[in-house]
Write a structure and sequence with these properties.
It contains seven helices and nine strands; from the N terminus they run ααααβαββαββββαββ. It has a five-stranded mixed beta sheet with strand order 2-4-5-9-8, covered by helices on one side. The chain has a two-stranded antiparallel ribbon with strand order 1-3. Strands 6-7 form a two-stranded antiparallel ribbon.
Length: 334
Amino acid sequence: MGLTNYIIAILILLGAFILFLSARYTTKIFRILPDNKLKSNWKKLRLLMILFLVGYLGVALAVILGNTNLLTYLSGGIFFMGSLFVFIVVGTGLDSFKKLNELHQNLDDTELKNKELEQFVYITSHDLKAPLRGISSLTTFAKEDLEAGNTASLLNHLILMEGRIERLEDLINGILHYSKIGKIKVERLDLHALVEDEFKNYKNQKHIHFKIIGRLPIIKGDKTQISQVIANLISNAIKYNDKEFCQVTIASLERSDYYEISFEDNGPGIAPQYHEKIFNVFQTLTEDQTLESTGLGLSIVKKIIEKHEGRIHLHSDGELGSKFILSYPKRLSR
C-alpha cells in the first residue's frame, strides 16, 4: 500500500475518532434537554454517528486492503447516511430553535409580568385603601352620632358607606379580571358575529343606535378575551355618552399585515392630554375631565390586544366623540 493510501486511512480513522467523541457528547446533551421530542431526535443523530463510525472503519480497512469494490459500496452508503444526517440535524436544529424561542418568550412574559405586578401592587395598595378609609371614617361618624343620640344623619352615613363598599367590590372584580389575562387560546373568530352578539345586550335601550360599516373580518384569537375587548369598548361608549341619542359605529379596514378596527361614538370625547393615561391601570375620566381611579376597563383592553400582538390608540379632540382604533394582526406568531 502506498504512502497516499496510508495518509487517507489515517485521516479516515481520525474522522472515526471524532465521531466517537461526538456520540459520547450526545449523552451529556440528553441530560439537559427538557423536551422528549428533542431527546428522540438526538438519539437518532447518535445512532447515525455510530453507523458513520462503522462505515469509516470499513472504508479505512478497504483503503488499507486496496479493495476498490468494497470501497465503492461503502462510499455510496456513507454519502446516503451523510444526507440523512444533515436532514436530521436541520430538523433537530429547527425544533431546538423553536424550543429556545418559546423559552425566551416565557422569560420575556415573566419579566413583563414582574414589572406589571410591581406597578399593579403599588397602585392597588393605594386604590383599595381609599374606599376602606372612607368606610372607616363613616363608621366612626355613625358611632359618634349614635352615642350622641343624633340619628338624623345616620341614614346618610349608611348610604355613603354602601357606595364605598360597592366601589371596593368593583375594584376587587377589576383586579380579578386583570389578573386572569394570561396565555391565549388561539382559534378562528368571526368578529362580526361577536359584535352583533354584544349588541343584543342593549336591544331594549331605544336611545342606543349601533352601526357596522361593511363586514368585520375573520380573525385569530382567544374568544373569551376578544369578547371582553368588544364588551368593554362598547359599554364605555354608552356609559360615558352625554347625548340624548347614543350612536356607536364599528368599522374595519384591511391593511397589508393587519386589520384596522375602529369603535367610534358621539359622546363628549377625551382631551388629547389624557389619551395615554386612560390606558393605565385603575385610570379613567369623569365628566369634568379630571382623572379618578375607578376601574380597569381600558387597561384590560390594552393588555389583551397587546397579548394578541396588536396595538390600540385613541383619536379624539375632546369635543366631538371618541374613536378607539385597534391594529390587529392578520396572523399571530404563536
